[in-house]
Specification:
By secondary structure, the chain is of the alpha+beta class. It contains 17 helices and 24 strands. The protein folds into five domains: 127 residues, 3-Layer(aba) Sandwich (Rossmann fold), CATH 3.40.50; 99 residues, 2-Layer Sandwich (Beta-Lactamase), CATH 3.30.450.20; 102 residues, Beta-Lactamase, CATH 3.30.450; 84 residues, Helix Hairpins; 152 residues, 2-Layer Sandwich (Heat Shock Protein 90), CATH 3.30.565.10. Strands 2-1-3-4-5 form a five-stranded parallel sheet, with helices on both faces. A five-stranded antiparallel sheet has the order 7-6-10-9-8, sandwiched between helices. The relative contact order is 0.04.
């Protein structure tokens, strides 16, 4: 609605035809009227009593299901004699209509309604209502002005005087005379310039002329050089019966102390604003209409709006929580709330909302303080991750301890058992059995040595031995093949290596060790394959390089794919210590990679793993 356009009056429709009520409500609402509809007379009177003088216009059907429209009209007039009642009915007699006019009906419109006629009647009633309201306001304003003027002149501490168009004193209050230090007879009839400087007189004369020309009041501040004080002057026209200005009344209020307090308040405001602006948390204050009245610099930095762009604007996204604070006066704390900033980054904040009340205790504003807890949340997640990792490590340690104690006990039992048998065989001087006993003891000791070596090796893998470096994966494969050449030759395995293998960023020695373990593992579990083969290569999965060592050996059942990476786990007994794949897994994971099995029983086996890519001249090598 245009700010200069006056608000249209509310309309009460008392009509038992629901369809007509709905039609009238829709049409009148579209024209800017606020409309209430009821279907019974008592309802209409109850609503009018409740809303008092809210409905100056009433559309009234004379025939209603509970009481007559005449009775409703009488009730409305008793509540508000100025009610404009427009009768709309098809069932009223001439006598009834006349009675309605006697009671105070504004006009009468027959059904079926002529909407243009109805709108014209409503607009006319609305205009008359507005004129009546304007007249009342004018009368009330005049009465109030007269009372204020009398009270002002008789009791105010301000200076009051009246001047003519040429700035001669016509009336002077005692307060103003005391300021001038003169008696009334020495001031009345004299010019303003007799008591003030040329500069002050010129400014005052211009203001007086403006009041005479416009017929409107003028207000301005002035510092009196003679008194060294500040005054707020209000110049108002004194008009004759034809509305022409005949003189100007001047009220001069001493605002020196007010100016001093304003300066102090402004200093305090700037000091407080400086403190708030330096708070890292975002701070906002909103009024009951949810408009911003204060925001700090942290809020501006986060929202990327300036204070000038925000202050006075309605806050976006307010909800029931803010309404509740205004209603209850209770604080609200939200431990965690997530949002995405303008750059697409995810943030987490804790939010506190608190009421600001006036002297009567009514909540007038809500202050909101938001603290970014993203780093704390990330730290919490990191702690959770570390705790989870620690639990996993502890569980792994328990399994490791159990496995080591179990697998090391086996060769110890062998050594202890055959040591006893050796003692007996020596006593019986059975040399052949003594040799067998010694062989079993040596084998047990050898097995224990291998187990201890593998255990020690596994414990050392938790750290990278050498600094990572960029190295072609093909070179690592050749080093591994050289280290296993004797075993490859004796087993008759055919080994093929893919060309153009990518470079990786790894501990060269450790990854060569991985490849040695995988090659030996493939040879150990080749089975009775007549043409044993091992392929070493890589593939690209979703943009990631996946390396593999494939063999056409006995394969591994899917249920065993995870278990084979356990310490000292054997797919088949008497095939090494069972630590090879555990060592492989640990080395790969220390490098930040992943390792897994792709295999089925009797269909060969692929051990797949990922490694960090090499970086050359800032470009990732795939």
């Amino acid at each position: 609605m245009d700010m200069g356009e006056k608000k249209k009056p509310s309309i009460l429709v008392v009509e038992d035809d629901a369809e007509m009520c709905e039609t009238l409500s829709d049409i009148l609402s579209d024209k800017g009227y606020e409309v209430k509809t009821v279907g019974r007379g008592e309802e209409g009177l109850a609503l009018a009593r409740k809303e008092k003088k809210k409905f100056p216009i009433c559309l009234l059907d004379l025939k209603l299901p509970d009481i007559t429209g005449i009775e409703v009209l009488k009730g409305l007039k008793a509540l508000n004699p100025d009610t404009y009642a427009i009768i709309i009915t098809a069932f009223a007699s001439k006598e009834t209509v006349i009675e309605g006019f006697k009671v105070g009906a504004y006009c009468y419109i027959e059904k079926t309604l002529n909407m243009e006629e109805l709108f014209a009647a409503i607009e006319h009633a609305s205009a008359e209502h507005q004129l009546l309201e304007d007249k009342r306001r004018a009368e009330e304003e005049l009465r109030r002005s007269e009372e204020e003027y009398r009270s002002l002149v008789e009791s105010t501490e301000d200076s009051v005087y009246m001047v003519s168009r040429d700035c001669r004193y016509l009336f002077i209050s005692d307060k103003h005379l005391s300021r001038l230090g003169l008696s009334i007879d020495k001031v009345r009839g004299r010019g303003y310039d007799d008591f003030h400087s040329e500069e002050e007189t010129k400014e005052f004369a211009e203001k007086v002329e403006e009041v005479f020309e416009t017929g409107k009041s003028v207000q301005y501040e002035r510092r009196s050089r003679r008194e060294g004080r500040y005054f707020l002057r209000t110049l108002s026209p004194v008009k004759d019966s034809e509305g022409r200005a005949t003189a100007v009344t001047v009220i001069s209020k001493d605002i020196t102390e007010l100016k001093r307090r304003e300066e102090e308040v402004e200093k305090s405001r700037k000091f407080l604003a400086s403190i708030i602006d330096n708070i890292p948390d975002t701070v906002t204050i909103r009024d009951s209409q949810f408009r911003f009245v204060l925001v700090n610099q942290a809020y501006c930095n986060t929202s990327q709006y300036t204070k000038e762009e925000v202050i006075g604007k309605t806050a976006y996204g307010y909800g029931e929580k803010e309404k509740e604070i205004f209603q209850t006066g209770k604080e609200l704390y939200i431990p965690e709330r997530a949002y995405t900033d303008l750059e697409g980054k995810r943030h987490y904040v804790s939010v506190k909302k608190a009421p600001i009340a006036d002297e009567s205790g009514e909540v007038t504003h809500v202050v909101t303080i938001s603290r970014d807890i993203t780093k704390h949340k990330q730290a919490d997640k990191e702690r959770e991750r570390l705790l989870k990792e620690l639990k996993a490590k502890n569980a792994e340690m328990e399994r490791f301890t159990y496995t080591v104690s179990h697998d090391l006990r086996s060769p110890l039992v062998t050594i202890q058992g055959f040591a006893g048998m050796l003692r007996k065989d020596l006593g019986r001087d059975e040399k052949e059995k003594v040799e067998d006993d010694l062989k079993y003891i040596e084998n047990g000791a050898t097995k224990m040595e291998h187990l201890l070596n593998d255990t020690l090796e596994l414990s050392r893998i938790g750290r990278v031995v050498n600094p990572p470096e960029d190295v072609p994966f093909g070179e690592l494969v050749q080093e591994a093949l050289e280290g296993t050449s004797a075993k490859i030759k004796s087993s008759g395995v055919e080994v093929s290596v893919a060309e153009d293998l990518p470079a990786v960023h790894v501990d060269r020695m450790r990854i060569a060790e991985v490849l040695v373990n995988l090659i030996e593992n493939s040879i150990n579990y080749m089975g009775e394959q007549s043409h044993p083969k091992i392929d070493i290569g890589y593939r690209i999965d979703d943009g990631e390089s996946v390396f593999f060592v494939w063999d056409n050996g006995i394969g591994i059942e899917p249920s065993q794919h995870e278990k084979v990476f356990g310490l000292f786990y054997h797919v088949e007994r008497n095939k090494g210590t069972g630590a090879g794949l555990a060592i492989v897994k640990r080395i790969i994971e220390v490098h930040g990679g992943r390792v897994w099995i792709e295999s089925e029983r009797g269909k060969g086996c692929s051990v797949c793993f990922t490694l960090p890519n090499s970086i050359e001249n800032g470009v990732m090598i795939k």
